[in-house]
Amino acid sequence: MDFRFSAEEEAFRREVCEFLDREIPERWRELGYGIWEETDESWAITKAWNRKLGEKGWLALSWPKEHGGQARSLIEQLILDEEMAYHGTPTGIETVMTIGWVCPTIMMFGTEEQKRDYLPKAAKGDIVFCVGYSEPGAGSDLAGLQTRAVEDGDVYVINGQKIFTTVAHRADYCWLAARTDPDVPKHKGISMFVVDMKTPGITVRPLINMLGFHSFNEVFFDDVRVPKENLVGEKNRGWYQLAVALDFERSGVWVPAGAKRTLEELVEYCKETQCNGEPLARDPVIRHKLSERAVEIEVNRLICYRITWMQSKGIIANYEASMGKLFSSELLYRLANTGMQILGLHGQLDRGSKWAPLRGKIARAYLSSHSIGIGGGTSEIQRNIIAMRGLELPRG
Ligand SMILES: Cc1cc2nc3c(=O)[nH]c(=O)nc-3n(C[C@H](O)[C@H](O)[C@H](O)COP(=O)(O)OP(=O)(O)OC[C@H]3O[C@@H](n4cnc5c(N)ncnc54)[C@H](O)[C@@H]3O)c2cc1C
Prior knowledge:
The protein has twelve helices and ten strands. Helix 4 runs parallel beside helix 8 (254-272) and helix 5 crosses helix 7. Strands 1-4-5-8 form a four-stranded mixed β-sheet. It is globular, with a radius of gyration of 22 Å. It has helices at 7-23, 26-31, 40-56, 74-87, 93-109, 112-123, 238-248, 254-272, 284-312, 319-343, 361-368, 379-390; strands at residues 129-132, 148-152, 155-163, 173-179, 190-196, 202-208, 214-227, 231-232, 274-275, 278-279. The structure holds flavin-adenine dinucleotide. Flavin-adenine dinucleotide (FAD) is lined by residues 130-134, 139-140, 164-166, 216, 371, 374-378, 380-381, 384. Flavin-adenine dinucleotide binds next to strand 1 and helix 12.
């Protein structure tokens, strides 16, 4: 067992940190936006940032070179993800979905033409996908999805509704799961499509999230005609492709890396802030809470490192990835809760108030901390996966 990074990996980390210190736009730092806070201005900054990373070949660092990547190792990818999260870059969730889930699936199951059409553009930051999986009646039970794709000559005609579709209002394409055979067991009749978001018949309706921002949507498909060549992989095998795509999900290291930054800010705040003539940092309850969060961040980091190590050895991390996601979700919630307890009533003030500690970051972290335990598979579903695949318990 060797927990050290190699000299080359350490050198890469230094290069990344220098780049981020130099290049993160000042305006982005002023805005202090988190992952679910999105406006026209922040979107423009994110887009420009992705293009900058794309030009450097860092957006799809570990992809093969023929698809626009740098063929760097998954460990280097982890280092880049970790530092970007710690430094709070403008990289958005759409990048995680496009680069981390959708494109690797196209790489694996798509035709040569599909690979040529989408991958180099995505690696340059020129296009993004939204993910059309969830429906009003199909979230955890995703295989129950009802959106239909029916063959008609050289097109599929799509009808149905998706929900919680993050960045659908910005995306160039939708990575869509639709039912192509309603007469077979539900897992066996699903296919995957790339749908141009400008196709007639698509209506995107905003959903405003708990932070007051428009980051996800309802998307309606009314007789949307999609060329047959936009089917990705085999017809009716979409469920299995979708499952493979979830295994591409990166280590999730952005959670402990971002949490480490927040913890450091809270520690600084406790050292600087006096209460009843004493710095908060002397309060035994606060000290213990901060220490507990520090231990949890370290545990989460090591789970994420293990997942990356497994992936780098070609081992599929399925229940381990669920452990990582579950732990991350609960860590973010506990950290935000600790922050709210330390800041007291001031902690509820948002940016813009001169009395808002840490520019309102903790209040927003508290509100957004609930989302990670839902999006991408809820904590209960992660527990079910760990029980079945990790502990080999029978299906509940
Ligand atoms: C911030 C955010 C962004 C999202 N972005 C996208 C996106 O871009 N694209 C997309 O397609 N979807 C997206 N989603 C949707 C997300 O994937 C679903 O919300 C999630 O899968 C849960 O589905 P549901 O909301 O239908 O809840 P349900 O599946 O109805 O679950 C309701 C409750 O029941 C519990 N439950 C359900 N089944 C079981 C079971 N078998 N055992 C124990 N408990 C169970 C759940 O844990 C949950 O607590 C996003 C969600 C959020 C919060």
